[in-house]
Amino acid sequence: MDRIPILRMGEFLLVTIQVDMHDRLAVALQDDLTERISQTGAHGVLIDISSLEVVDSFIGRMLANIAAMSRILDASTVVVGMQPAVAITLVELGLSLEGVKTALNVEKGMELLRTSLNGHPGGLGHGPAKR
Amino acid sequence: MSKISEILREHESDILSDWVKQQLTSSGSRPDLMKETEVREQSAEFLRLLAGAAQNGNMGDIQGASWTRVRDLLAGISRSRARKGFTPVETATFVFSLKQPLFTRLHKAHGSDAGGLFEDVREATELLDRLGLFTYETYQKSREEVIQRQQQELLELSTPVVKLWDGVLALPLIGTLDSARTQVVMESLLEKIVESGSTVAIIDITGVPTVDTLVAQHLIKTITAARLMGAECIISGIRPQIAQTIVHLGVNLSDVMTKSSLADAFAVALQRVGLTICRPTAA
Q: How many CB pairs below 8 Å do chains A and B form together?
């Protein structure tokens, strides 16, 4: 079975979803990611979904769940690169991913993670005050 | 036995010349919109097809297969007239004005047979009325198509997303927001956010006359979707009346940043992307 690779970058974990998500893949990702967070003691998780074109209620809920689980394991999660169509779908499904940080691209997402890790929690959905 | 089809066939050229004369002299004639030769051509074509259909087909049912060509011709004529700017009456008169020349011929053919004349006149009236109404309906349809196209164009025109600064977008909304428009607004805003890599978007609703729960719902959806993509939205230009309405309706805008004017919102947006405005000091 396919697995989504989880890369370690310093104290962060980087998850890049490059394939179409299906339900079992999402469940596997949830298992792997929680496992890796506790193993490595990472403080931040960045999930890049810029190649994700189709999303359903299950995948949307998995994203929210993964973020909530990471938070319990003391790692803040940033979802980056969501496509407009995906964003509209999630909103229409009533999944606004409360409590999940978001950023436009990986670069801004990393910045956001670093700032929040330095004890300056950035607001939801926007980048740090300084460029 | 009805003499209509027989008369149509035998006196085609006479009826045609009478009919065209009548069309050109009647008040429904529009020499500014349509040339005489064109009127003559359309009339001749219609008469020819009508004679053919009346001979083969059932007079009472113009939806039948034998009337297909007549219907197509009439649809084409009324569509072209609708586009040229004819009024509905002028368009329908095209068919109705055939009555008089046709009735004159029927009268002559029947002579003193009042009963037969009455039957034929009744049948012809019914037929031409149906065809006239069909023309009118097609006219109406093509006008509706025009209106629909214009609405679509208006929809696209009225939702510009402008870039105020590097990383700052503005969406000045003007006019009433309905579901279809909000969908377009939402899509164009989100597309533009991706395209320009902007982190702040200002939605200015100065030009929105009323805000009801539905509009507020749409706005919140747009803002949530933008947030999911990693951009923050600021609402500006909320008029006092609208602020009252929003609170009375119980719409929760507490998670959304609101500013009274576009200028205020822009100042905040610049701050968010790490820029400040300063006046150059005189050296």
A: 79
